[in-house]
Amino acid sequence: MAKIKHTKNELKAQRDALKRFQRYLPTLLLKKQQLQLEVRGLEAKVEAKRGEEKAAREQLAAWVRLFAEPLPLDTLLKIGAVKRSTGNIAGVAIPVFEGIAFERSVPDLFATPAWTDDGLSMLETLARLRAEREVIEEQLRRLAEELRTTTQRVNLFEKVKIPEAKDNIRVIRIFLGDQMTAEVARSKIAKGKSVEKGTAA
Q1: Is the pTM higher than 0.85?
Q2: Which residues contact 42 (CB under 8 A, 6 or more apart)?
Q3: Considering the domain boundaries, does residue 166 fall inside one?
Q4: What is the mean pLDDT of residues 131-152?
Q5: Cβ(28)–Cβ(154) below 8 Å
Q6: Burial class (CB in 10 A: 0-12, 13-18, 19+), 66
Q7: Which domain holds residue 78?
Q8: DSSP label at 106?
Q9: What is the three-class DSSP state of 158?
């Protein structure tokens, strides 16, 4: 604990600090609750996306042998940029998935197998699911980091700053009270001595 001055000015400063901490703490607690809810929701979304990816891969398992056939898929389907925007949750900037661009060439119907269109659609689905999941995981990472920081601040206010300010106020008030009592006692003694001198003369 830092050494404090035992003065009326320091008492006022400690009281002001305590009011500030107590006014700011409910806002931090509210932010913490909101972040906890959002993190839980995003964890569920990540799991749901993983489930969708798993289901799409299981669907693709029936096609795996067909993909072994020599077919220049990279010339038929190119994955472009993932489109993102920026959102805001509890003051945290997060990426928001807007879509993914695909460049799809029309295959030669006579030179490619009949399953080519369906196969390309399945690959698009898998790429889109993965991109969505990665954006949600990034949202989760950022919000979890902010939740950790907010929790540390809440703990700092609840367990350190507020009790420290209250204790400082108590110590200063006791010191000032003792000082006032000592002054009263000194003035009584001085008054008593002056009265004695007056009666002795």
Answers
A1: no
A2: 136, 139, 140, 143
A3: no
A4: 95
A5: yes
A6: middle
A7: 21-157
A8: P
A9: helix
pLDDT bucket at 115, cuts 50 / 70 / 90: low
Q: Say what the pLDDT of residue 22 is.
A: 93
Domain presence at residue 127: yes
φ/ψ of 50, rounded to 5, equals: -60, -40
- Per the structure, the count of domains in the chain is 1
The CATH number assigned to the domain holding 128 equals 1.10.287.3240
Token pair recorded at residue 7: 């003065």
Q: Which residues of 112-141 are buried (b: 16+ CB within 10 A; e: fewer)?
A: beeebeebbebbeebebbbbbbebbbebbe
Measured between alpha carbons, how far is 97 from 92 in angstroms, rounded to an integer?
Answer: 16
Q: With bands split at pLDDT 50, 70 and 90, how would you rate the model's confidence at 44?
A: very high
Tokens of 33: 């609750």
Burial of 13 (C-beta count, 10 Å sphere; 0-12/13-18/19+) = middle
Q: Which long-range contacts (CB under 8 A, 24 or more apart) does 72-76 make?
A: 73/119, 73/120, 73/123, 75/105, 76/104, 76/105, 76/107, 76/112, 76/116, 76/120
Question: Phi, psi at residue 113, to the nearest 5°?
Answer: -65, 165
Question: Does the residue 13 lie in any domain?
Answer: no
* 195 within domain boundaries: no
Read off the pLDDT of each residue in 132-158 and give the average, rounded to a whole number.
95
For residue 53, give every residue at least 6 positions away whose Cβ sits within 8 Å of its Cβ, in sequence order, or none. 126, 129, 130, 133
